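Saturday, quiet lab. Running sequence design on the structure tokens for the scaffold JK sent over.
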């Protein structure tokens, strides 16, 4: 199974281009923090070693346009996709590439920290979902004309106190449309 799920921040502004056929293509880089203990993180920072990985990503079609129009450097984003490798020639040398091709996109928040989960986008190709993830609300390219904001909520019990809500509010399961 070739499946990738990343949550991180855009390391630079997305680059939107259009192919001769009119298909939108967006290239961007997601900075994903490594899971390090506090001590290991401090050691890495003291030695000028990276504490994040920078993952090259590519999106196509309406997904590409959404990323380019609603995200900028520093924006937090969640993506699901697949790994794709390739190669090309530069100055007589073969350059190998590894990218994540985006299938699903989740708007998580803004770089200013004021945004909450704002919905998602699921790009289906050839009328079927290429992965085993459920469309958690948002926009399904195969079935709808335009995206709209969708609020997603998940129940969890991670030993959080009732007073520590981090800006989230309780949602009744009967209010969720899926």
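Result came back. Writing it out in full:
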């Amino acid at each position: 199974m070739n499946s990738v799920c990343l949550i991180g921040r855009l390391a630079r502004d997305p680059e939107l281009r259009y192919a001769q056929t009119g298909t939108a293509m967006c290239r961007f880089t997601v900075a994903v923090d490594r899971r390090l203990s506090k001590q290991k993180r401090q050691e890495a920072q003291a030695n000028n070693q990276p504490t994040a990985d920078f993952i090259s990503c590519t999106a196509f079609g309406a997904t590409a346009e959404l990323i380019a129009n609603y995200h900028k450097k520093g924006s937090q984003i969640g993506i699901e996709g697949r790994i794709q490798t390739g190669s090309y020639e530069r100055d007589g040398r073969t350059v190998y590439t590894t990218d994540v091709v985006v299938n699903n996109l989740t708007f998580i928040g803004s770089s200013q920290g004021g945004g909450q989960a704002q919905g998602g986008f699921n790009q289906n190709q050839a009328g079927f979902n290429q992965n085993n993830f459920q469309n958690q609300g948002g926009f399904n390219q195969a079935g709808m004309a335009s995206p709209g904001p969708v609020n997603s909520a998940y129940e969890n019990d991670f030993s959080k106190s009732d007073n520590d809500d981090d800006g989230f509010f309780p949602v009744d399961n009967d209010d969720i449309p899926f």
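Notes for JK: The first helix runs from residue 38 to 46. Confidence is low (pLDDT under 50) at residues 111-121, 123-167. Ask whether to fix the surface positions before the next round.
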